[in-house]
Specification:
The chain has a domain at 2-76. The chain is 69% helix and 0% strand. It has helices at 2-10, 17-27, 32-55, 59-84, 98-107. The chain is globular, with a radius of gyration of 16 Å. The two termini are 27 Å apart. One of its GO terms (molecular function) is nickel cation binding. This is Urease accessory protein UreF.
Length: 116
Amino acid sequence: SAALDDLARARPRGAHQPVVLGLIAHAAGLGPPEAAHAAAYEAVSGPVTAAVRLLALDPFEASAVLARLTPDIARTAEEAVRAAHGPLDQLPAAAAPLLEITAEDHATWPVRLFAS
């Protein structure tokens, strides 16, 4: 999309994940509910996937945990969409950068946890 191209030119080293996710969702024709659900699912599934890889957890058990969390993920996405229609100071959090911060920190380690 033109918006993604503009962002790539403006931020050649990358942009914050929520900004990119929003632009990709918009380019794909998704609305706020679908974008919020994707963000909520990613926030949970990424760490679960990492735990399977790092701790040799049973992937079927991890998938079962994600399945059990489905109602909570959906509820979180619905709450995010509702909150987005109100004043910014009423959002549940001003930001949630921990996933990005830990990913950036991990990229500087001499030994990486994942090399995919």
